[in-house]
Design goal:
alpha/beta; ATP hydrolysis activity; 9 helices; Cytidyltransferase-like domain; Cyt_trans-like; two-stranded parallel ribbon; 6-stranded mixed β-sheet
Length: 283
C-alpha cells in the first residue's frame, strides 16, 4: 500500500470525467484525505459526508436503521449519494454514489466481526463488496487503511481507471464482490418507484458534457415536443445570460397519472433529432 501507488491511482480517478458524492460511516477515513490531497480533487469530489453518530445517520436516511453495518446499509447510502450527485454534478457528466459502512477495531473489545461493506452506484449498475477482517491482527489505523484502499480501488473500477492497489488483505480475508447491471427500463422503473430522483439523457455532442455549472431547465409534458418549447428555452437562455439547456419530463405529476416506461421512452426519442438541430441553430 505504497503512497506513490495510491497517489497514482487517485490521479487517474481525478483525470476521469466521473463526479462523485461519498457517504462514509465507521471507517475508510483515510480515503477522503487521499482524494482531497491530490490535485484535481474538485474534478471528482462533489461532496463528502460522514454520518458518524446515530442521529446523523437517522437524518441522512430519514428513518431509524435496524442495523448500521450491513451491505443493505451501504447500498442505501450509495443510492442516496448517487441521487445527490445527480443534483450537484455538471451537466452531462457521469456520476457515482459511494456508500461505505464499517465496524472496525475500537477502544473496547468487540463481540462481532471486524468488517466493512462498500457500494458504488452508477447510472446503469451497482458494485458491491464486503470484507471480514481477522480480529486482533491490526490496529484501528491499520484497518482503516485497508478499508480506505478497498474504497479507492472500487472507485477506480467504477471510474473505469486501470491500476491495482495492494490492500493488505491476507489470503483468508477474501472480499465478496458482485455487480448488478440495469437496463434502461429498470432505471425508469426505479425512477417511477421513487428510488431515483431523475434519469439523465445527454444529447450534447460534447464528450463529457459541459463545464457550465448552471442548468437552464424547461419542464413540461412534451406531448409532443414542438417549436414553442424550443423558443421558450432560447428566450430563457438569453434572459439568464447563458447556461446549459435542459428539458425536464415529469414522470410523476400531481394532477395526472404517472407516465409508463414506454411513454417516457417515446417522449425522450423526440429529442434525439430535434435537439441536435436546435443546438446547431444556436451556434
Amino acid at each position: 500500500m505504497g503512497e506513490a501507488a495510491i497517489r497514482t491511482i487517485v490521479e487517474a480517478i481525478h483525470s476521469s470525467p466521473t463526479q462523485a458524492v461519498v457517504y462514509l460511516s465507521g471507517g475508510a477515513s483515510l480515503a477522503l484525505g487521499w482524494l482531497m490531497s491530490v490535485p484535481g480533487a474538485s474534478n471528482t469530489l462533489l461532496e463528502a459526508v460522514v454520518p458518524y453518530s446515530r442521529v446523523s445517520m437517522v437524518q441522512l436516511l430519514g428513518r431509524v436503521p435496524s442495523q448500521h453495518c450491513s451491505q443493505a446499509m451501504a447500498k442505501e447510502m450509495a443510492l442516496l449519494a448517487y441521487n445527490r450527485a445527480l443534483k450537484l454534478s455538471k451537466p452531462g457528466y457521469p456520476v457515482l454514489g459511494v456508500g461505505f459502512t464499517g465496524s472496525l477495531a475500537t477502544s473496547r473489545p468487540k463481540r462481532g466481526d471486524h468488517r466493512f461493506f462498500l457500494s458504488m452506484r452508477a447510472s446503469n449498475r451497482i458494485w458491491e463488496s464486503s470484507v471480514t477482517l481477522t480480529k486482533n491482527l491490526r490496529s484501528r489505523e491499520e484497518e482503516d487503511k485497508v478499508s480506505s484502499c478497498a474504497l479507492i480501488q472500487a472507485m477506480a473500477k467504477a471510474c473505469q481507471v486501470s491500476g491495482t492497489l495492494d490492500s493488505g488483505l491476507t489470503e483468508s480475508e477474501v472480499p465478496y464482490e458482485s455487480e448488478t447491471q440495469f437496463t434502461e427500463e429498470q432505471e425508469l422503473e426505479q425512477l417511477i418507484n421513487g428510488h431515483l430522483t431523475c434519469k439523465i439523457y445527454p444529447f450534447s455532442g460534447e464528450a463529457h458534457g459541459s463545464d457550465e455549472d448552471r442548468k437552464i431547465i424547461l419542464p413540461g409534458s412534451f406531448n409532443p415536443l414542438h417549436e414553442g418549447h424550443l423558443k421558450l428555452l432560447e428566450v430563457a437562455l438569453r434572459v439568464c445570460g447563458g447556461g446549459y439547456p435542459c428539458f425536464e419530463i415529469s414522470a410523476i405529476n400531481a394532477d395526472k397519472p404517472p407516465l409508463s416506461v414506454a411513454q417516457i421512452k417515446d417522449r425522450v426519442k423526440q429529442f434525439e433529432a430535434v435537439v441536435f438541430g436546435w443546438q446547431e441553430r444556436q451556434l
